[in-house]
Amino acid sequence: MSDKLLNFDKPSLQGSIKIPGDKSVSHRSIMFGAIAEGTTTVEGFLQSDDCLSTIDCFSKLGVDIKVEEDRVEIKSNGISTWKEPDEILYTGNSGTTTRLMLGILAGSNISSVLIGDESIQKRPMKRVTEPLKQMGAKLIGRANGQYTPISVEGSNLQAIHYKMPVASAQVKSAILLAALNAEGETIVEEIETTRDHTEKMLSHFGVNIQVEDRMIRLHGGQKLTGTHVIVPGDISSAAFFLVAGAISPKSRLELTNVGLNKTRTGIIDVLQSMGASLTIDISENTSHELIGALTIETSDLKGTTIGGDLIPRLIDEIPVIALLATQAKGKTIIKNAEELKVKETNRIDAVVNELRKLGANITPTEDGMIIEGPTPLHGGELLTYGDHRIGMMAAIAALITEGSVSIDNHECIAVSYPNFFEHIEKVTKQ
Ligand code: S3P
């Protein structure tokens, strides 16, 4: 864990970046390939720390996985042929790995124990263990199943009709994955629509899954068949460069290979409502996910209000949207975003503390934050809290500060964007 000093002179950003693979889709490609019978090939896979944690867990379960740069081959004969792991399954910093694995393992025929890093050990798991226990899962974890380590004794599961109390794709996915091995039809009702990569990819692997409004239905006992998966670029990674391009002087950035699944494009809505100069070019669709190119230019921005059903469509982008708002004229209100408190760190506190150090006018609220702009930012010593998205927000801020910015533990950025600094260098080098 080391500090990084970022000393830019408000560069103009130019050029094109091919956005690396989507983290959510990459995790699922490995998981579903491991559950499926036959061979699954993945292209565009994100080789980041989080996704490698998922691969590591499945290797310990005896699944044959070969990774060569962004290509992965998974050979499996289905979940019933996995081996009981003789080691603890380590899920690292990854909430998606931890929560979805709980759903998968609950209905398997093996016993296992899951543990994550310091951050994961503090993140709430009851939102997953509670509905899984209602399905008959045998799970034991600290604080009555709230925290890892959690032990799972695979068992026979029953279908459930579950009305989700939180908007969370991880919770929805954990239940749907458990439902594959449950008796009967499972129904999951969402309070808000969340990212639907699980639904789309299950269908791509041959599962009959029905989605109507916010209601998802799936019959247990269905098999997945190995297939080819194309992982689109991660719009959550693109978001950092969208903001960088909009707030840096005389800039124009083209971002290619961006996943444009409509459950993820809240950042585009926000940029448009703030008046950003953004163009969208949708490619021909070769995958089960929509892909396109985004071009962003230096923009005159105005404040906006972000809340309601927009929040799940941009939840991971809020740290960098807060930075964007410091450069917009007027007030930006971010509300209904209390889920930020249970991410890799408490992102309301982290964003407010760190942007204030640079001179931003930002106030925390119970469910979000209020930012008044535009404010010129100055240098400072920023903390990442071990959270990749706070680290990247700080690095993007450094592009427009008067004076240098240092960030601690910059290595945490490899959780989702290992070549982030290479890409910064590419667009700042004239
Ligand atoms: C994810 C869902 C979201 C998101 C996370 C990835 C997923 O979390 O913040 O980065 O892959 O399903 P929640 O389900 O907790 O909202």
Automatic annotation (TrEMBL):
Chief site of localization: cytoplasm
Subcellular location: Cytoplasm
GO molecular function, one term: 3-phosphoshikimate 1-carboxyvinyltransferase activity
Catalysed reactions listed for this entry: 3-phosphoshikimate + phosphoenolpyruvate = 5-O-(1-carboxyvinyl)-3-phosphoshikimate + phosphate
Location of the active site: 316 (proton acceptor)
Residues given in the record as 3-phosphoshikimate binding sites: 23-24, 28, 168, 170, 316, 343
Matching Pfam families: EPSP_synthase (PF00275)
Family label: Belongs to the EPSP synthase family.
UniProt pathway annotation: Metabolic intermediate biosynthesis; chorismate biosynthesis; chorismate from D-erythrose 4-phosphate and phosphoenolpyruvate: step 6/7
Xref: NCBIfam families: aroA (TIGR01356)
Keyword annotations of the record: Amino-acid biosynthesis, Aromatic amino acid biosynthesis, Cytoplasm, Transferase
Source species, domain of life: Bacteria
Gene3D superfamilies attached to this UniProt entry: Enolpyruvate transferase domain (3.65.10.10)
SUPFAM superfamilies the UniProt entry points to: EPT/RTPC-like
Domain Enolpyruvate transferase: 12-423
EC numbers, comma separated: 2.5.1.19
Subunit structure: Monomer.
Function, as annotated: Catalyzes the transfer of the enolpyruvyl moiety of phosphoenolpyruvate (PEP) to the 5-hydroxyl of shikimate-3-phosphate (S3P) to produce enolpyruvyl shikimate-3-phosphate and inorganic phosphate.
Binding, phosphoenolpyruvate: 23, 95, 123, 170, 347, 389
Species of provenance: Psychrobacillus faecigallinarum
Name listed for the protein in its UniProt record: 3-phosphoshikimate 1-carboxyvinyltransferase
KW Amino-acid biosynthesis (keyword) present: yes
